[in-house]
Amino acid sequence: MTGTHWSIQDIARTAGTTSRTLRHYGQIGLLEPTRVGANGYRYYDEHALVRLQRILLLRDLGLSLPSIAEVLDGEQDSAAALRAHLEWLEQERARIGRQIESVRTTLRKLEGGEQLMADEMFDGFDHTQYEQEVTERWSKEAYDRGNRWWSALSEQERKAFVQEQADIARDFGAARAAGLAADSDEVQAITARQYAWLERSSEQVSKAYFTGLGDMYVADPRFTANYDKHGEGTAVLIRDAMHVYADRNL
Amino acid sequence: MTGTHWSIQDIARTAGTTSRTLRHYGQIGLLEPTRVGANGYRYYDEHALVRLQRILLLRDLGLSLPSIAEVLDGEQDSAAALRAHLEWLEQERARIGRQIESVRTTLRKLEGGEQLMADEMFDGFDHTQYEQEVTERWSKEAYDRGNRWWSALSEQERKAFVQEQADIARDFGAARAAGLAADSDEVQAITARQYAWLERSSEQVSKAYFTGLGDMYVADPRFTANYDKHGEGTAVLIRDAMHVYADRNL
DNA sequence: ATAGAAGTTGACGCAGCGTCAAGGTCAAGC
DNA sequence: GCTTGACCTTGACGCTGCGTCAACTTCTAT
């Protein structure tokens, strides 16, 4: 402490940061040392300390170093910068909140004795199978709507819904046995029922979702096995049919 | 699509990611291609696709790639990993929440016509001057306690509180005029009053806070001016006295 | 004079890829 | 047989904000 100017360690301690940080700020031009001795040592005065304290304050608010530079150098209106930053912070909090919900859901399943992802995804086509998918792709609200829809169904309606899927799978199996092509009118008619069936619950079936689902039927052995119980090759037929349907209609 | 194995772009599209990501996962050993052709091309089969989908699912939950590897390779209990991750997520959300509060407070001040940081920090020693400090260092609850304390005071009590600070500053000024040393009994007695005064409002005055405050009295011209109105050098005397006091008593 | 504290400039590391750059491969059409 | 154009490869830098060596020089105190 030489009265009016301090060494790098002095201000670092005073401001509660490290010398490395100060050298970093010097490097990016955020806070230059007041004076650099012939020996290369950095020295800072009160003005620098005040600026440093403001920098650290804004940093603790979560602003980026470039933003801080703009604010302190008067290139940016402080209030505007803070408002923009606030918005970003709120989005971040919302995003994390969604992740927390997803993790909690997954944990509940795991602890409820159900098995993770793989094994729970295809038991009787339970509606909850797409929870993660839907949650991620169309946001939680959309999923909640779907969930309410399912919860609102009567036992009979649920059975009918599941049965219809079974019928569709059976008809696909029959079509395959008859040697029908994926783009034939007959198979496309069944595919239309498949689409309608999906639409009843999701109410938002995009092209990507539909074809992706088709691919999964072939790629994932659990799906393949379920469909191929109507004859080997049924899953492939369904996938191809869904692709054709998507290309033509979606 | 050669039936059972796909090119890098094929799975990338199917799973909704990019080829760059897949090569990255290959590089860090998270997901190796099923087969690598003589030409160096990567090929993936259904198993790889399923694994990739699980990876992406966990990634969307916010897990790190190393954590995902541990979970998928069975080295880590899934539930335990998710619980740990959940905790971390909740801390993150809390942290962001605190930042949001700080930013809002700062914005309110800015828009209320008060000026940022610098100019608002020293008008009559308004209690709110330490808001940022206190908020950051001792959490919001501590600050709220302090704020409630101040709000609970009567107008008379507030005036007395401010007056006491003025008296202390005056006495420091007199001590300096008398040529007393910072570590003299007289000056230390005044310093003790300064400490007690601070303690009344903050109720948590750490050594670092006390000495830091002393440094600020000298470093920040606004403080310096306020104290040096009792004679030049008063601020320096106070700082030194506070350091001595802190070393001896805190 | 010499030790120890403090200072300096590089430069790598981290997380998770995006994004060129520079160049090989492959199916298709002329 | 040659040219496109689409797709593939392996580097390697960039981003954020410093932490953390490493290898040296300088200051301070005994």
TrEMBL record, chains A, B:
Organism in which the protein naturally occurs: Labedaea rhizosphaerae
SMART domains reported for this sequence: HTH_MERR
Molecular function as annotated in GO: DNA binding; DNA-binding transcription factor activity
Name of this chain's protein: DNA-binding transcriptional MerR regulator
CDD domains membership: HTH_TipAL-Mta
PANTHER family, A to Z: HTH-TYPE TRANSCRIPTIONAL ACTIVATOR MTA (PTHR30204:SF90), REDOX-CYCLING DRUG-SENSING TRANSCRIPTIONAL ACTIVATOR SOXR (PTHR30204)
Keywords: Activator, DNA-binding, Transcription, Transcription regulation
Ranges for domain HTH merR-type: 5-74
